[in-house]
Amino acid sequence: MTQQTIDSRLQQVQSRIQAAAARAGRDPATIALLAVSKKQPLAAIAAAHAAGQRAFGESYVQEALDKITAFEAPGIEWHFIGRVQSNKTRQIAAHFDWVHGLCSPDHARRLNDQRPADAAPLNVCIQVNLAGEASKAGLAPEQAAELLALCQTLPALRVRGLMTLPPPAEDEAAQRAPFRALRALRDTLASAATPLECLSMGMSGDLEAAILEGSTLVRVGTAVFGPRPYN
């Protein structure tokens, strides 16, 4: 994919974010774009970085480590957005800036204990499975408070907010419902000490609905990079 194509795609996604923010009466600067770069070649990440993109999301630890090692660039942020596995927590804790799918007390403790002493606290979002889908990770909404309380005792973790991955929905009203529920849960759990300012929700097909319901970070892959060149 050419630099011009990546530039154009990023501009189109930013235009969608700006339009949705305008509909919601929000400042588009409060909505971050996470470019989901899993299964994309390093050249595509380099092109997006050259176009001004700084945050990239990866789901597979070894693939991500290869990219992180090969592409050191100013201001780049690496977000782990896959399912956290116990045998991968040391690598995740050592090499990522964010984790978007925390949903296990054991994983929280491991990430805290394995975070390098000279690194900043690991930014985490607690994943909530609003629809109770067996195929997806995430806590039931009523379990989120307990994990949040644990994380608040772990100094190498910084809980930034909540994340969800709802089932696909056809129309905007149906898309908005789970995002509204996550925002309501955040409002219930947030405190002065832990404001939970990040709502990690919305992807290529439903980012408008997510922004209308308060998303502060949209995770976009296909709309930025096009179809994945390999699976």
TrEMBL record:
GO terms for molecular function: pyridoxal phosphate binding. Keywords: Pyridoxal phosphate. The modification N6-(pyridoxal phosphate)lysine is found at K38. It comes from the Bacteria. PROSITE patterns: UPF0001. Its cofactor is pyridoxal 5'-phosphate. Residues 10-229 form the Alanine racemase N-terminal domain. PANTHER family: PROLINE SYNTHETASE CO-TRANSCRIBED BACTERIAL HOMOLOG PROTEIN, PYRIDOXAL PHOSPHATE HOMEOSTASIS PROTEIN. NCBIfam families: YggS family pyridoxal phosphate-dependent enzyme (TIGR00044). Pyridoxal 5'-phosphate (PLP)-binding protein, which is involved in PLP homeostasis. Belongs to the pyridoxal phosphate-binding protein YggS/PROSC family. This is Pyridoxal phosphate homeostasis protein. It comes from Marichromatium purpuratum 984.
